[in-house]
Amino acid sequence: MMIGSDDLDKLEAEQFHGFVCFPEGNPKVTLGWSTHSKLVEAINSELTFFKSELNKEVYFHEHEYLIYEDYFIWWFSFFEKDPLIKNQVASELERKINDVLRAFPDAADKEFVRTDQPDFLPDPDFLMHYFSIVEGADLELKSREAPKEKSYEKESVDISLFDSPMSVVAFKAVINNYFQNSTEENLSYFAAEDGFFSTRRPENKLLREELLPIYYMKKIKAADDEILSFGLKADIFDLKISQADGLTKEILEITWALPEGDHKLLSLVAQVGSGFLPVKNRANFKKMSDSLGEKIVSAINGKHKKQYPDQRSLLVVIPQDYTYQGDESLIQETITQVQQSLVGGKRKFEKIYLLCGNRFYTVY
């Protein structure tokens, strides 16, 4: 929805937005994850001053400016009705953010830009981007529970199918029934808040997690006559692949690396559709995406603590939502961070893989 200049003036009167541009690309990649993490930590440390000393919450959020390829913007927003107080807080925020940027050689050329100054004269495309932030900025979406009553027609997967070993070709047939055909029934199943991506129904969670081995089997080129065993009832493995003669070919552990609050994201995204999350939700989303590397390390370390009686590989799964839908350079930088942070490397695992969407990456 477009807003007029009068409406914009009213909205701007009670909110402030400043920004720092990264036209060269995602700062996680261009700065490197180590420098990026230290820079974000320094900024967040300064932002605590505003909350503790000025009783003012400053929201730090990130946007990809889609008009230009690989153009990223860090936004800093707060809300204040008193114009004098707003200007004082904005001036202090400008000073502190610029001081932090200058303390980092790779970011010293960046500058905090205030949108409330006369020299802020953006081009029409950037102005539209700015409007999208101002409009509804003071809202905060709350996650809502998925419907208790099933809202889609797709028949739930029969969990008992995975109780017994099955051939690769039989497994593919079960999985493809849900994912290969773009029928209205399947599309509705994926879009429903209680559907494929929801934790509301255990059979959907199972299907979501058991879908992963099909990508793994493509990776290792499993033959159709090989046999799959799923460790659903006995916590001894997640997947075992055996040759037709019964010899074990591969044993796989599967774990997810999820930022805190990930289970709420589906509901929030469903509420905005193709629009932007409001400022407060966006600031929380940045914290979630910034924590992804740490969550991967934590997930691997959690598996390292277990004692396994045999040789196996580990598959760590991450959602695309926190990687700008699987941005290749961002994932590679994340893997570098994990490799630098993980003490002991792969240890007892034969290999450690990362899966994002349907793409595999080797961590070790």
Characteristic key phrases:
alpha+beta, 42% helix, 13 helices, 11 strands, 2 domains, 364 residues, Alpha-Beta Plaits, four-stranded antiparallel sheet
Description:
- This protein has 364 residues and is an alpha+beta fold.
- 42% of the residues lie in helices and 16% in strands.
- It folds into 2 domains: 5-134, Alpha-Beta Plaits (2-Layer Sandwich); 159-362, no CATH class.
- It contains 13 helices and 11 strands.
- The strands form 2 sheets. A 7-stranded mixed β-sheet has the order 5-6-7-8-9-10-11, with helices on both faces.
- A hairpin with a 7-residue loop joins strand 2 and strand 3 (72-79).
- The longest helix has 21 residues, at 33-53.
- The chain is globular and about 80 Å long.
- The mean pLDDT is 89.
**Uncertain spans, ≥5 residues at pLDDT below 50?**
none
> How many structural domains in the coordinates?
2
Average pLDDT taken over every residue: 89
Q: What share of the residues lie within helices?
A: 40-55%
